[in-house]
Specification:
The chain is α/β, with parallel strands linked by helices. It has 11 helices and 14 strands. Helix content is 36%, strand content 23%. It has an 8-stranded parallel sheet, with helices on both faces. A 6-stranded mixed sheet has the order 1-6-5-4-3-2.
């Protein structure tokens, strides 16, 4: 059984291949080709320990920790390992670091959602948050849209300014950053809504990747009255505070849009609520494992 550390994963994982893999696995998931139970979560010491198995064309399990209080320390808020197995024989194939996989597959799924839901001529990208996920989305989303202006906001203005200076963005106040943006990413640690629907321009697209607990929110009720697309109906009903607390009814899974069984009209204001799924992690781990075999 191979072991791949984060440096190995970084070296082997290509963004274009990852976006393609996420597009495929999301479509397969909504077609019933994968088995994935709701993730199990244990809360302890101010953090969470999650167990996420999945089986389809690949088989594996991610074990992930989320400790929000690690923010500002030497440790990441999210850490993980993924075990990959042969789905035909049950043979253990690899154990690999899952922190970077979690980071990049989240942004790649947002890229898939942006590609099918955002305006084709989207030019303005706004990042709400200046952490790991903001960086990942800044790296990945330009693979599907050519942005002419990119903005960032953070509840710590000095962090937004540092992020903006490092990456060539404009650090702005919250409302100003959202208004007139074509694509908005909410990647914050907020537990109460920070994004107001009244700020969104008609036809804007939001990738909401924070607020991963049933009592946490990033978007207000007004924002959630737009067309809501989720990665998983079951996950959204049980884990997404933005969906649960607003009473929103998701219109579709992203995989249904990809499969053509659901359609969103051009010019629609859309919200993609992303919780992350085991199928994404396992498919990404298989992508990394296959790349390692070719070396």
């Amino acid at each position: 059984m191979r072991y791949l550390d984060e440096n190995d994963v970084r070296r082997l994982l290509r963004i274009e291949d990852l976006i393609t893999a996420m597009r495929q696995v999301l479509a397969e998931f909504s077609s019933g080709k994968w088995k994935q139970p709701l993730r199990g979560v244990l809360g302890q010491h101010g953090g969470f320990f999650g167990v996420m198995p999945a089986s389809g064309s690949a088989m594996g399990i991610k074990m992930v920790t989320f400790y929000p209080n690690n923010a500002g320390t030497k440790l990441p808020t999210h850490m993980a390992v993924i075990a990959l197995f042969d789905p035909e024989t049950g043979e253990p194939l690899a154990l690999m670091d899952g922190r970077y996989i979690t980071e990049m597959r989240t942004a790649a799924v947002s890229a898939v959602a942006t590609d099918v839901l955002a305006a084709k001529d989207a030019k303005v990208l706004t990042l709400l948050g200046a952490g790991v996920q903001a960086h990942a989305h800044l790296e990945v989303l330009p693979h599907v849209r050519q942005f002419e202006e990119m903005r960032v906001w953070n509840h710590h203005p000095e962090k937004a300014q540092a992020f903006a200076e490092k990456h060539g963005l404009n650090a702005m106040e919250l409302e100003e950053a959202v208004r007139d943006a074509d694509v908005v990413v909410t990647a914050t640690s907020a537990r109460e809504p920070i994004l107001k629907g009244e700020w969104l321009k008609p036809g804007a697209h939001v990738n909401a990747v924070g607020a991963s607990r049933p009592d946490w929110r990033e978007l207000d009720d007004d924002a959630m009255r737009n067309v809501v697309v989720v990665d998983s109906y079951e996950g959204a009903r049980n884990e997404a505070g933005d969906v649960i607390l607003s009473g929103a009814t998701p219109f579709a899974e992203l995989g249904e849009i990809l499969n053509g069984t659901k359609r969103v009209a051009p010019g629609t204001t859309t919200i993609f609520k992303s919780l992350g799924m085991a199928v994404e992690d396992v498919a990404t781990a298989k992508l990394v494992y296959d790349a390692a075999l070719q070396r």
